[in-house]
């Protein structure tokens, strides 16, 4: 069921593109039980497809090698084969299956792929309409254990929950 109304009626079918300069994709995870590591991805892309004034599809790709946590040694380790293995798995992807807007809860249902694992995720979101853009903000908790992100000897020191936050600005 797709129920998101677009405030600019008249155009039948179109794809909105991501304004990368105004968009953000970040994450947080605990380390050693009491520290929080924050980071972001500097290179990602997304598209939002409109059909008859409703959002019908959202797709996104993250370049794994663009991970940034303000510590270059940690960033290189995260890109390496024990963690995200950016050489073998250069991208993470998301593709929506359905998009729901209701008075009680907005959610995007879709498939997230990290490394070789793909899982269904439900992402709560909010929409803000501006004159020339649409801003989608979302937060979701994913479990790294569900994506086989086993970090070897360090595994017990790193939290299982990863909080992912997105502010995606789309333009015509």
Folded structure, characterized:
The two termini are 24 Å apart. The chain has one helix at 72-79, and strands spanning 13-18, 24-31, 35-41, 44-51, 54-63, 67-68, 91-100, 107-114, 117-129, 133-143, 158-171. A hairpin with a 3-residue loop joins β9 (117-129) and β10. Residues 1-10 have low confidence and may be disordered. Helix content is 5%, strand content 56%. It has one helix and eleven strands. The chain has 172 residues and is mostly beta strands. Strands 1-4-5-7-8-9-10-11 form an eight-stranded antiparallel barrel.
In N-to-C order, the SSE pattern is EEEEEEHEEEEE
Widest sheet, order of strands:
1-4-5-7-8-9-10-11
Give the biggest beta sheet.
8 strands, antiparallel, barrel
Low-confidence sequence ranges: 1-10
The first-to-last residue Cα distance is 24 Å
Proportion of beta-strand residues: over 45%
Radius of gyration: 17 Å
Which shape, going by the Cα principal axes? elongated
Helical fraction equals under 10%
Feature tags:
172 residues, mainly beta, eight-stranded antiparallel beta barrel, 5% helix, elongated, disordered N terminus
Task: Give me the secondary-structure topology.
Blueprint: E1 13-18, E2 24-31, E3 35-41, E4 44-51, E5 54-63, E6 67-68, H1 72-79, E7 91-100, E8 107-114, E9 117-129, E10 133-143, E11 158-171
Antiparallel strand pairs: 1-4, 1-11, 2-3, 2-11, 3-6, 4-5, 5-7, 7-8, 8-9, 9-10, 10-11
